[in-house]
Structures are given as structure tokens and as C-alpha cells.
């Protein structure tokens, strides 16, 4: 049996998938590290005083220029909406509707101005709010300390205002509530989720807006209108509803301006634009092109009036507002101040100085941020950072020189003014360069990498499919199919590595890995193709009958239609956000359909009906007894599928969804009676699980020997269950009742889970060490001299008494051997040899199940019981179907079984209370057994990962059972309690066929090929789903829901794939280990 | 012989299709505010009753599986009662299967049950009319080589089409289109109806198309 090549081949296939995932991720998922540093007034960044600047009372970095500001965010206010073109004769519904802005800008050019406001992708509302308040470029994953909530942890404008004692009032979109919990002085949130609802949020705001403005209890008022955006999503921009909505906004602005005080700044901004269909999320011109309008009743701007509205990056609003309101700029801001707002109403010289100091502060802050960021992460290129550093220090030197001159009191000269202007330009240049560097690494998809990643994953799927077909053939050579591709891949990796070494460029690991993966794949296909023609040639010897050949080929593919069709439907479902959201119900639906169709197909082909129909009633058919059993199993499976729906977690996208009450820990239950009841239920399910496994092992005779593993199963399984039950008892108890025993409780809280971990790990090691659970009854006793030889006649009574029983025994012995020789020779009876592979897997699965169950909340044990039951039922159905179908090749696991197995894994991902969104991760799993927290990040990550992907782990490790189970169940005579495999001592007597799993051992080559094929099929089904996810994320990257639905789904699917494939390798490795041990056992048996 | 049989089948199926079309067009003349989507439950009842009557009438007129034996009246009555029991059991079974497939268990029980009744009308009732309350015959008909007449073939096709239609009808439910027909069980019952109608139309065509290949075992 070829063990290592099989494992290596599967590992190589996994590696191909991983490299594809890595490549796609590097192009799709923009990553950034969040810094938690905060700016404060005491930072040494405050502006040095220029001549003529008095320090006002509220000076922090820069004197406050605006005491109050109103920030109106009109969601999806595209620049086209805000622009007014009087020349247009027949405006579209969205054009020329905000006439009031135009009127203000036209009549008071020093008070009002309209800008193009360039949003940074991803143009989704939440990311944009983050951008407008923190001044940075939020990506999909902002790696921060807390994944569980969406709250902004970075330094931000609101935080700065609150810290400096300002009052921030908010009204509108309730996304802000999640982002800034407890930050607002007063707030009016309205639900934003229903995209079809155009008016709730806007009307709610209008109800409170004017009274709040008049009340005056605020320093910054934020109002976030959603109507325009929702109108875009519902009707698109080119619709009369949009005209109505924009007119409403226009009226709102008109009356708001009437209510504003003289010193209040009004900022109207769109957070992003929209495409022609009203969508947003991506980086197309229309999506990033929003509008910004600034107005105040006191003059803000200089006399200079630009011809065409300027383009302002969105992040620029943050430093501008911060400095205008007299608070520090948020730490991570990379925006640039809008200088013209700092000119004020003084002379030009004064204005220039004040602009310069704003730039100076801004540049200092950005430089500080870049420095801290480059210490925390390496994703900004070092040489660009060095260049930026140089720019900044040069500008700073120049600034200080100029400052010294001015301090000396030299009279203002044109030459000095020119230097001033040049310095401003230098600061500007620095800030823009810095922003560009950050943009490049944080805010841009890499379409090429995404496409290449997809192609790599697709090619890997194809490879799995092709290889699984080839593996069935006996001429599968690992040399050409595995060794050469691997060598090719390694060679390419080495060449690339050398090239990098020679050119001394930064080594991009992902690129190297993907190149080598792609090459090795190509080599595989090339070698496979190279072998093809010969076979075609051989086939060509016979006169080809094309028609028949095609028909037969179609016949051969017919069996694939069912599983592949269902798999195809599931893959299509990945492209719809609604289906991804509803996947928890879609997966069981498809699994149920698959199972029912499978049994229906058997019925259709007449496999379920008894072959000899009773003659008396023609036209009637009867079911065999086995068929009824199969139907019962099907009913149990359907019931399992339905019941597993009881354990679902909710997503916020599903309205009126109540999360399953079973997800809450027992300690949250109020009523003691209910708590006791549920506790008993949980313990019962635990005991049931352990008991069922014991029964199964007993039934197949794997519980008889005295090997350490069997002892472990006998004694440690109940012990584990008891410990888990104790742990539950301690955690679910009310905290105050055990007042005096508090310390003991703390010890128990740590001790029990850790003991469970320890014992379970010990068990896993034991399985690896001695996986054979076979009880040997050896009846080949060596017939030695039992009778002590005696000399002479018996001398005494005592001697006689001693000898007579000996003679009797001797006679008995010889009689027995004669009898034995008569009809059966001395035999070795090995109990449990027929299920030795499955037994080891079942033991490992149970151990893993108990381990994973500990990580979940107590009542999830019911879900785990259901999981084991469903797995068992699936295997039984599979075995029945194989035996009923009759014609199936025993060494080939059919596609439907693999597909159903993968679907069951997906289904139980949901039924163990998970959802593919970050807030639904069970973070508490990291603290099971580690109450104090962790010192490293690895262990909690492993615990949380094991909790999240529990079902993936269990089903992947159990995957080889699909191959083994039909062999285990094959004995038709199920009444036999003990199944034993009789091994003839004389090897030449081979007339007795090996039974059950020993049939696998009979042909080791086919066994290893079957394992390889099974693994490849499993990888293929997983890989196709992954491919669908990846394609969905790539194609729909402009979709409204991409960051809420598709991207998290992709992440969970990719992680699930990795976990599954590694566990699959482990499962197959375990089977190989058992095979080794069984071989050793046979050898040990031989010499005796 | 075969051609006349096919013609009879075609006419029977056309009558069935027309009856279903009538259930959507006639009731608004008598009932206020009736629409298939708005008052779906009423439509479900009307459709089930209408299809039942039409099927029974057609069965009485056409007698697809004429029995050679003379049957006593008492036997007929027990047969009829047995049919009723079978129909009721099949409604319950369908209800159970629909719930197992993910329909709500407690809420909208009435909707689910009426949908089950509709499905039974499309499938079980047909079987009862054609084959009588004889499970063995049912098992025989729904297997690969089990059809003994074109009526059996038609039965296979319409039954499968109805069930497949109902299955496909479940697909639009999760979508967030907010259409009135996405509410449970409208899409499924409409799917089943469309499937049934499609089956009725396809069956004679398919049989006509394959009339050369179709050979039936003698009874």
C-alpha cells in the first residue's frame, strides 16, 4: 500500500487551493492595521504662534475658528445631484433639484462653495462614515483589537470632540449607533436596514432637526439622511421619486439655513455617489464622485473664485473640521486641510500665515502617524516612507527658517510672500504623496490577482476531478503525476527566489507560491495529457462507433446528474445575497432533496422492490424488508435536518428573527426549574452519545481486548462525560449561591475543561500509538507435558490422588485435539478485525466531538448529538444504497455520498449556532478553561477556530468512513451479534473470503487509490463551493452587500476549506496509521 | 387503438387544464375581492375541489383501467371509503414532508395543510382514480418499467411534474424582492400548479413522440 504518495498528493492538492485562496485574498481583501493611539491637546504639534495671533481661550493645536457646526450627510449625494445648470432645458429627474445650494453659492461667493467630494473605495456607508470621522482609509478588515462589534476604536473626530467637552448631537441612520456607542450627547436613531423604505429616516430627522438647532444645546450636529440612497437602490437615480426626494432635501436646506446662527458652519456632504442603477460599493467614477457644500453666514473664503468646483478627497474634511472646531486632528488622519477655509477675514499675509500653520500641524500629524504605522505594520513600502520623511524634514527646515525670519521682525516683502507660497506647496505636496502611498496599499483591488486566484482555484478543482477519475485506473503512476509536477513547482520557486535574491527586491511570498503552484499544475496536466493519446490510439484500433460511444458515455455520466445538479444549484445560490443570508435553511433543503431523490431513483430503477413478485397479483410490487428500513432511515434523516433548525443563530438581515434560545448559556436562565431540566437534558445527551459509541464498538467486537486504547474507551469516555457535566454544573450555577466556595469554583472552572483537554489529547495520542482494537482468542495452545512423569508404582495414596486427575485431564486433552482435527483446526479468532479501521475513526471522532462540545455552550450538546446521529444515518443510508444498488464498485465512493457529506458539514456549521459574519463568532470559546485570558494569540485563535468550524472538523475527519462503512455493514446476516474474522492458521487454505474491512486489505493498491480518490472528491466538492464564493465576491464587488454578505462569506468559506482539508488529511493519515498497525499485528501473529 | 387512446388522453388532459384555468377566471365573477394571490387560501380550496371533481368525472366517463370483473355495490362503497382514507392520509403525509423540508411548524398551519391538500389532489387523487387504493400497484407504476398503459405513463409524468414544480416553487422564497407571490405557500402552490399543467400538456405529446418505443406488458 502506498501511503506517503497518497498523503503527499492530497497535501499537494490542498496546497494548490491554498495558494489560489492566498492570491485572491491578497487582491481582494484590503487590510490595514488599526492604531489605538490618540491625539491630545498636549501633543507637541501645536502651532507655533505667528505674529499677530493671539492665543484664544479654546486653543488646542490651533485656535478655534468656528464654535458650532452642522454636518448634514445626505447618503449617496452624487455631485451630479448637487450641481445646478440653469442652461439645461430639460433636466433629468435628478438634475437641477438642489437649486438652493446654487443660489447661495451664486449670491454669496465668500460664504458658500460647492466641491466635488471624492470618496475612497469601498464606497459603502459604514466604511465612508469611518473615513469621514477618522480621516483614514478604512478597508474591509481593519485589524483591531475587537472583531465582535463594529464600534470604531481608532481615534476619530467625535471622540476628540467628546474628550474636549463638546456636545455632539446625532439624528438619522442607526449605523452610527453601532459605530459610536455612547458617544452622543443626544441622539435620534432610525432604522436603516430596509432599503425599500424611503421616508422613515428622513421624516424622523425633519421632526427633530429644527427644534434641536433652535435649542442650541450642541456644538456639532450631525444629521444623516438616507432617503436619496434608498431611492437610488429602489428606483435608480433616473426616476421621478428621486426628483421628489431631492426637492425635499432642497426645502430642508432652505429652512435649515434660516434657523442657523451667524457663527455656525454648515457642511453638506454626500458619503458616496451611485451608479446609473443606484448601486454603490466599488470604485467606479460615478460611485466615488460625491458632493460637498460648505456655507457659513460669516465670510469664509477669500475673494478668489474658482471656475470649476475643486475636487477634494473625502478624508480632507476631518483635519479641516477638527482644526476649525479647535480640537486635535485624529491620530490616524491622512487627509489634508482645506486651506481656503483658514483664510478668514484678515489680510492676505495673515491669511497666508494661518494657512501655513494649519499645514504645518497637519503635516506633523501625518508624519507622526506614518512613523507609528510603519512600526506596527510592514505593508507600506519602506523606500517610499523614506522619501516622504525627506520631503517632510526639508519642508520643516524651510518652515523653521521662515519662522525665525518673521520672528526677527523683518518687514513683509514680496520675496517672503513667494517663499511662503512655495512652502505651502511643499507641505501640500508632502501630504498628497503620503495619501497616495497609503491609498496604493489600502484602497485598491488588484483585479489581476483576483482573476489569477480564481483561475488557480478553478484549475485545482479541475485537477481534483481529473485525478480522481485517473486514480481509479490501476496504471496511476505517482512518479509522473506527483513527482514531476512537484519538481517543476520547486524549480520555479527556486528560480524566482534566486531572481529576487539577485535583484534584491522585496520577496513577495504569495506570488512565488502561486507561480510554483501554477507551474506544478501545468506539469500535471501536461503529463496527464501526454499519456492520453496512447489510450486513444488503443481505442482507435477497434472501429469506432461514434454514436454508441457517445450514448454510452452519456449513460456513464448519468449517475453524476443528480449530485452535480444539486451542487450546481448550491453554487448558484452563492451569487445571491438573499440565498447566502438564508443559507442556513438552503443547505438542509438541498441535502434533503438529494437524499430523497437518491432513494426515489433507487425506487425508479426497481431496486427497492422484491425481485420475485408474487404471481397471484400481476401488476403489483412489494418492498423488501431492507427497503422499509431504508425508508425509515430517510425519515430519520429528514427529522434530523428539520430539528437541526432549532439551533440557528440570527443575522441582522433577516427581519423578526429570534436567535435560538439554546445558544444562550444555562446561567442566563432565570427559572431554576427550567435550568435543571435543561441541564439534565444536556447531560442525558452527553451520556447518550458516549453510550451509543460504546454500543457500536461493542456490537462490532472492538471493546473486548485489553489494549490501552480499549481501556481508555471503557473508562475515560465516561470520565470525560462526567467532567464535562461537572464543568457545566459549575458554569451554569448562579454566582452568589456558592459564596464561600468561590475559590473552589474558580479552580473548577479552570480545572475541568483543562482536564478534558488533557485527557482527550491523551486519547488522541493513544489512538495514534496503538490504533488496533482487536481481541485475539488463540486456541493453538501448545500441548505440553501436563502430566508429571512418574517413576515406578504409586507409592502412596497421595500419589494416586495426584495422578488420576492428571490422567483424566490428559485423556480429555487428547480427545479434544482429535475432535478438533476432525472438523476444525486450531484457529485464531480475532474479534473486531472487520471494523478495525472504522473503530479507530469512531473513537477519534467521539473524542473530537467531546472536545468541541466543551467549547460550545451547554445546550449545544443536543446539536452535537444530532450531528452524530445524522452522520450515522447518512452513513447507513449510503451503505444500504450501495448494497441495494448492487452494481456499484465497492472501492469507489460515489459522488452523491461525498456531496451529501459536505452539505451535512455546511448544515451543521449553521446548526451549531454559527453564521458567516464576524459578530456571530462565539468569542467566549477562547475562555473555556482559561478564565484569566491568554498570553499568546495562538491558543485563543485555535479555540475560537475549533468552535467555529466544529462541524467542518468532524465531518472532514470522518470522511474516510464513507469508504469504510459499506464494508462494515456488508454482512447480510445482521442477527449475528459478534462478528469475528476467522483466520486460518494454514495460509494455504484460502477458500474462505475475507470479510468486511479486511477486503480492503486484500488489495492494498486499490485501497490506497480509493482513499486518494475519496480525498480528491471531497476536495473537489469543497473546492467548487469555494470557487463559487470567490467568483461571487469578485463579480459582485460593486454590490451593495459585498462587505456585509459576500466578503465575510468568502472568508468563512475559505477558512472552512482550509480547516476541512487539513482535517481530511488527518483523517486519511489516521486510516493509514491503522493500516500500518494492522500490518504489524499480522506479522506479529505469523511466527507463533 | 393506440392513437385513439392518445386522443382520449389528450382530450381528458385538455379538460383538466381548462378546469384549472377556469378556477382563476371564474370565481372573480362571483366573489368580491377574489384574486389568486390576495385570497390564496380560497383559491387553493376552489382549485382542489375543482380538480377533484373534474378528475372523478373524467374517470367515470373514460374508465381508463376497465375491470373485467363485476363489482358489487357494497364493494364499491368500501372502495370509495378506502379511497377517502387514503386521500386523507396522503394529505397528512404531504403536510409532514413539507414541514420536514422547512415549512413553519406552528405558524400558518392552515396554509401548509391546504398546500398539502393541493399536492395530494394533483398526485394522490390521480393515482386513486387510475389505480384504486392499491399500494402495490402504485409502487409498480412509479418504477422504470412499470407502466402498463399510456394512462400510467401520463400518471407518472403529471405526478413528477407537480412535485418538481412545487420543489422549484420554494426557490424564490428567500429572495428579497418583496413580491406578493413570495409569501408562503403561494410560490410553491403556483409551482405545483404550473408543474401539473405542464405535465398534463407534456404527457400526451411525450407519449405521441415515443409511441414507437412504448410497449406495454399485458395485464
UniProtKB/TrEMBL annotation, chain A:
Q: Name one GO cellular component term.
A: endoplasmic reticulum membrane
**Cell compartments where the protein resides:** Endoplasmic reticulum membrane
- One short Pfam name that applies is Phosphodiest
Biological process GO annotation list?
GPI anchor biosynthetic process
Question: Where is it chiefly localized?
Answer: endoplasmic reticulum
Q: Does the keyword Secreted apply?
A: no
Provide the topology term for how it sits in the membrane. Multi-pass membrane protein
**Do you know which Gene3D superfamilies this protein is assigned to?**
Alkaline Phosphatase, subunit A (3.40.720.10)
Q: Which keywords does this Swiss-Prot/TrEMBL entry list?
A: Endoplasmic reticulum, Glycoprotein, GPI-anchor biosynthesis, Membrane, Transferase, Transmembrane, Transmembrane helix
Q: In which pathway does it act?
A: Glycolipid biosynthesis; glycosylphosphatidylinositol-anchor biosynthesis
Q: Which domain of life is it from?
A: Eukaryota
Transmembrane parts of this sequence = 448-470, 482-503, 509-526, 586-606, 677-697, 709-730, 755-776, 828-855, 861-881, 893-910, 949-968, 1016-1036, 1056-1082
State any single GO MF term: mannose-ethanolamine phosphotransferase activity
Describe the family membership recorded for this protein in Swiss-Prot or TrEMBL.
Belongs to the PIGG/PIGN/PIGO family. PIGO subfamily.
The protein's name in its UniProt record: GPI ethanolamine phosphate transferase 3, catalytic subunit
From which organism does this entry originate?
A: Gopherus evgoodei
UniProtKB/TrEMBL annotation, chain B:
Which GO BP terms, alphabetically? GPI anchor biosynthetic process
* One matching Pfam family: PIG-F
Cell compartment(s), UniProt: Endoplasmic reticulum membrane
**What pathway is this protein a component of?**
Glycolipid biosynthesis; glycosylphosphatidylinositol-anchor biosynthesis
Q: State whether keyword Nucleus applies.
A: no
Q: For this UniProt entry, what's an example GO CC term? A: endoplasmic reticulum membrane
Task: Indicate the principal place this protein occupies in or around the cell.
Answer: endoplasmic reticulum
Keywords (A to Z) from UniProt: Endoplasmic reticulum, GPI-anchor biosynthesis, Membrane, Transmembrane, Transmembrane helix
- Membrane topology per record: Multi-pass membrane protein
InterPro entries from the UniProt entry: GPI_biosynthesis_protein_Pig-F
Q: Which residues are listed as membrane-spanning?
A: 9-29, 41-62, 83-106, 112-132, 153-171, 183-209
Give the protein name, as stated in the record: Uncharacterized protein
**What taxonomic ancestry is recorded?**
Eukaryota, Metazoa, Chordata, Craniata, Vertebrata
Amino acid at each position: 500500500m502506498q501511503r506517503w504518495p497518497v498523503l503527499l498528493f492530497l497535501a499537494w492538492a490542498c496546497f494548490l487551493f491554498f495558494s489560489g485562496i492566498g492570491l485572491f485574498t491578497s487582491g481582494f481583501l484590503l487590510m490595514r492595521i488599526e492604531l489605538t493611539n490618540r491625539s491630545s491637546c498636549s501633543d507637541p504639534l501645536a502651532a507655533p504662534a505667528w505674529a499677530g495671533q493671539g492665543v484664544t481661550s479654546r486653543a488646542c493645536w490651533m485656535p478655534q475658528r468656528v464654535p458650532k457646526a452642522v454636518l448634514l450627510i445626505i447618503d449617496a449625494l452624487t455631485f451630479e445631484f448637487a450641481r445646478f445648470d440653469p442652461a439645461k432645458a430639460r433636466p433629468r429627474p435628478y438634475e437641477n433639484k438642489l437649486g438652493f445650494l446654487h443660489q447661495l453659492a451664486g449670491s454669496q461667493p465668500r460664504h458658500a462653495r460647492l466641491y466635488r467630494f471624492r470618496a475612497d473605495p469601498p464606497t459603502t456607508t459604514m466604511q465612508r462614515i469611518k473615513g469621514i470621522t477618522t480621516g483614514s482609509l478604512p478597508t474591509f478588515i481593519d485589524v483591531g483589537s475587537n472583531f465582535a462589534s463594529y464600534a470604531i476604536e481608532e481615534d476619530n473626530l467625535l471622540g476628540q470632540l467628546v474628550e474636549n467637552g463638546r456636545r455632539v448631537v446625532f439624528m438619522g441612520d442607526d449605523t452610527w449607533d453601532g459605530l459610536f456607542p455612547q458617544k452622543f450627547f443626544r441622539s435620534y436613531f432610525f432604522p436603516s436596514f430596509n432599503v425599500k423604505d424611503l421616508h422613515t429616516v428622513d421624516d424622523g430627522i425633519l421632526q427633530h432637526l429644527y427644534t434641536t438647532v433652535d435649542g442650541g444645546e450642541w456644538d456639532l450636529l450631525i444629521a444623516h439622511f438616507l432617503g436619496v440612497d434608498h431611492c437610488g437602490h429602489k428606483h435608480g437615480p433616473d426616476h421621478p421619486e428621486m426628483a421628489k426626494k431631492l426637492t425635499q432635501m432642497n426645502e430642508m436646506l432652505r429652512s435649515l439655513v434660516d434657523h442657523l446662527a451667524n457663527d455656525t458652519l454648515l457642511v453638506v456632504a454626500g458619503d458616496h455617489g451611485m451608479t446609473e442603477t443606484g448601486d454603490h460599493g466599488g470604485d467606479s467614477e460615478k460611485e466615488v464622485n460625491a458632493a460637498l457644500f460648505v456655507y457659513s453666514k460669516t465670510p469664509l473664503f477669500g475673494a478668489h473664485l474658482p471656475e470649476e468646483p475643486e475636487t477634494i478627497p473625502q478624508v480632507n474634511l476631518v483635519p479641516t473640521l477638527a482644526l476649525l472646531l479647535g480640537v486635535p486632528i485624529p491620530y490616524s488622519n491622512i487627509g489634508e486641510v482645506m486651506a481656503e477655509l483658514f483664510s478668514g477675514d484678515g489680510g492676505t499675509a495673515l491669511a497666508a500665515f494661518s494657512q501655513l500653520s494649519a499645514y504645518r500641524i497637519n503635516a506633523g500629524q501625518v508624519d507622526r502617524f506614518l512613523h507609528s504605522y510603519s512600526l506596527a505594520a510592514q505593508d507600506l513600502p519602506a523606500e517610499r516612507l523614506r522619501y516622504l520623511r525627506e520631503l517632510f524634514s526639508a519642508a520643516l527646515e524651510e518652515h523653521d527658517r521662515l519662522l525665525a525670519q518673521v520672528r526677527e521682525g523683518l518687514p513683509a516683502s514680496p520675496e517672503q510672500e513667494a517663499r511662503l507660497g512655495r512652502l505651502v506647496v511643499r507641505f501640500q505636496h508632502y501630504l498628497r504623496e503620503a495619501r497616495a502611498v497609503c491609498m496604493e496599499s489600502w484602497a485598491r483591488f488588484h483585479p489581476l490577482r483576483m482573476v489569477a486566484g480564481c483561475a488557480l482555484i478553478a484549475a485545482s478543482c479541475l485537477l481534483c476531478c481529473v485525478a480522481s477519475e485517473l486514480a481509479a485506473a490501476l496504471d496511476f503512476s505517482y512518479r509522473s503525476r506527483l513527482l514531476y509536477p512537484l519538481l517543476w513547482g520547486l524549480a520555479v520557486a527556486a528560480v524566482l527566489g534566486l531572481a529576487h535574491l539577485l535583484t534584491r527586491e522585496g520577496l513577495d511570498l504569495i506570488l512565488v507560491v502561486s507561480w510554483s503552484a501554477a507551474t506544478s499544475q501545468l506539469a500535471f496536466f501536461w503529463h496527464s495529457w501526454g499519456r492520453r493519446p496512447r489510450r486513444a490510439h488503443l481505442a482507435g484500433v477497434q472501429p469506432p462507433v461514434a454514436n454508441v460511444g457517445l450514448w454510452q458515455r452519456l449513460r456513464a455520466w448519468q449517475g453524476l446528474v443528480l449530485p452535480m445538479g444539486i451542487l450546481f444549484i448550491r453554487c448558484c445560490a452563492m451569487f445571491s445575497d438573499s440565498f447566502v443570508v438564508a443559507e442556513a435553511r438552503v443547505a438542509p433543503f438541498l441535502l434533503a432533496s438529494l437524499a430523497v431523490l437518491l432513494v426515489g431513483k433507487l425506487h425508479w430503477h426497481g431496486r427497492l422492490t422484491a425481485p420475485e413478485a408474487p404471481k397471484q397479483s400481476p401488476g403489483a410490487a412489494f418492498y423488501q424488508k431492507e427497503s422499509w428500513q431504508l425508508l425509515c432511515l430517510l425519515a430519520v434523516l429528514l427529522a434530523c435536518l428539520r430539528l437541526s433548525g432549532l439551533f440557528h443563530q440570527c443575522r441582522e438581515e433577516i427581519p423578526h428573527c429570534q436567535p435560538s434560545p439554546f445558544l444562550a448559556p444555562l446561567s442566563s436562565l432565570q427559572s431554576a426549574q427550567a435550568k435543571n431540566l435543561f441541564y439534565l437534558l444536556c447531560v442525558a445527551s452527553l451520556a447518550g452519545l458516549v453510550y451509543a459509541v460504546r454500543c457500536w464498538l461493542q456490537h462490532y467486537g472492538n471493546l473486548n481486548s485489553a489494549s490501552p486504547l480499549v481501556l481508555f474507551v471503557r473508562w475515560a469516555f465516561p470520565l470525560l462525560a462526567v467532567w464535562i457535566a461537572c464543568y457545566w454544573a459549575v458554569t451554569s450555577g448562579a454566582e452568589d449561591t456558592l459564596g464561600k466556595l468561590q475559590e473552589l469554583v474558580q479552580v473548577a472552572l479552570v480545572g475541568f475543561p483543562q482536564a478534558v483537554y488533557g485527557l482527550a489529547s491523551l486519547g488522541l495520542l493513544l489512538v495514534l500509538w496503538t490504533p488496533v482494537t482487536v481481541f485475539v482468542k488463540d486456541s493453538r495452545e501448545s500441548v505440553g507435558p501436563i502430566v508429571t512423569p512418574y517413576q515406578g508404582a504409586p507409592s502412596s495414596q497421595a500419589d494416586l490422588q495426584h495422578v488420576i486427575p492428571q490422567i483424566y485431564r490428559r485423556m480429555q486433552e487428547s480427545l479434544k485435539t482429535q475432535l478438533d482435527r476432525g472438523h476444525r483446526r486450531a484457529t485464531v479468532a480475532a474479534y473486531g478485525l472487520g471494523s478495525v479501521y472504522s473503530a479507530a475513526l469512531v473513537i477519534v471522532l467521539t473524542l473530537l466531538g467531546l472536545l468541541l462540545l466543551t467549547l460550545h455552550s451547554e445546550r449545544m450538546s443536543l446539536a452535537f448529538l444530532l450531528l452524530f446521529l445524522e452522520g450515522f444515518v447518512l452513513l447507513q443510508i449510503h451503505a444500504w444504497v450501495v448494497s441495494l444498488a448492487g452494481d456499484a464498485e465497492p472501492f469507489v465512493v460515489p459522488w452523491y455520498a461525498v456531496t451529501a457529506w459536505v452539505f451535512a458539514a455546511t448544515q451543521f456549521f449553521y446548526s451549531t449556532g454559527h453564521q458567516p459574519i464576524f459578530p456571530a463568532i462565539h468569542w467566549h470559546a477562547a475562555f473555556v478553561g482559561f478564565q484569566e485570558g491568554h498570553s499568546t494569540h495562538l491558543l485563543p485563535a485555535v479555540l475560537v477556530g475549533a468552535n467555529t468550524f466544529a462541524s467542518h472538523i468532524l465531518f472532514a475527519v470522518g470522511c474516510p468512513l464513507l469508504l469504510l462503512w459499506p464494508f462494515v455493514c456488508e454482512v447480510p446476516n445482521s442477527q449475528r451479534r459478534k462478528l469475528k474474522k476467522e483466520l486460518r492458521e494454514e495460509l494455504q487454505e484460502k477458500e474462505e473470503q475475507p470479510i468486511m474491512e479486511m477486503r480492503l486489505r486484500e488489495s492494498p493498491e486499490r485501497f490506497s487509490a480509493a482513499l486518494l480518490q475519496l480525498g480528491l472528491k471531497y476536495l473537489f466538492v469543497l473546492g467548487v463551493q469555494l470557487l463559487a464564493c470567490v467568483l461571487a465576491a469578485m463579480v459582485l464587488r460593486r454590490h451593495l452587500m459585498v462587505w456585509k454578505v459576500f466578503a465575510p462569506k468568502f472568508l468563512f468559506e475559505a477558512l472552512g476549506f482550509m480547516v476541512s482539508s487539513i482535517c481530511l488529511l488527518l483523517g486519511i493519515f489516521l486510516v493509514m496509521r491503522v493500516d500500518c498497525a494492522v500490518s504489524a499485528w499480522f506479522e506479529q501473529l505469523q511466527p507463533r | 387503438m393506440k392513437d385513439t387512446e392518445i386522443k382520449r388522453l389528450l382530450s381528458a388532459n385538455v379538460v383538466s387544464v381548462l378546469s384549472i384555468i377556469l378556477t382563476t377566471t371564474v370565481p372573480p365573477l362571483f366573489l368580491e375581492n377574489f384574486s389568486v394571490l390576495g385570497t390564496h387560501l380560497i383559491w387553493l380550496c376552489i382549485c382542489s375541489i375543482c380538480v377533484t371533481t373534474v378528475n372523478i368525472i373524467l374517470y367515470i366517463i373514460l374508465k381508463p383501467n376497465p375491470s373485467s370483473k363485476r363489482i358489487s355495490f357494497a364493494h364499491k362503497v368500501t372502495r370509495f371509503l378506502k379511497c377517502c382514507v387514503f386521500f386523507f392520509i396522503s394529505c397528512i403525509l404531504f403536510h409532514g414532508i413539507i414541514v420536514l423540508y422547512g415549512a413553519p411548524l406552528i405558524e400558518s398551519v392552515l396554509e401548509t395543510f391546504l398546500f398539502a391538500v393541493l399536492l395530494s389532489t394533483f398526485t394522490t387523487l390521480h393515482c386513486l382514480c387510475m389505480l384504486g387504493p392499491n399500494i402495490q400497484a402504485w409502487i409498480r407504476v412509479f418504477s422504470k418499467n412499470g407502466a402498463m398503459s399510456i394512462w400510467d405513463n401520463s400518471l407518472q409524468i403529471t405526478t413528477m411534474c407537480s412535485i418538481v414544480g412545487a420543489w422549484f416553487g420554494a426557490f424564490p422564497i428567500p429572495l428579497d424582492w418583496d413580491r406578493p407571490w413570495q409569501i408562503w405557500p403561494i410560490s410553491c402552490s403556483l409551482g405545483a400548479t404550473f408543474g401539473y399543467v405542464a405535465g398534463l400538456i407534456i404527457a400526451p405529446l411525450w407519449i405521441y413522440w415515443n409511441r414507437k418505443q412504448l410497449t406495454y406488458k399485458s395485464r
